[in-house]
Amino acid sequence: MWFTSSYSNGAGGECVECALTDESAFVRDSKVAKSHVVAVGRDAWRSFVQTVQHGGATS
Length: 59
Known about the structure:
alpha+beta; 4-stranded antiparallel sheet; 20% helix; 31% strand
C-alpha cells in the first residue's frame, strides 16, 4: 500500500509516496499520477532512512 511522506503538506511542494514490501521499498512522485517508480533494496532503504533520521551528511 502506498503512503505519502509525513512532510507532504498538500501545497504542491516536493512530495514522495512509498510502498514497502518484505524485500524492497518503492518510491514515486506523489504529484504525477503515472510517474516512474524507483525500487530500492530493503537494506539500502533502511540505511537511507537511518541516515536521514540521524541528520546524515549532505553532499
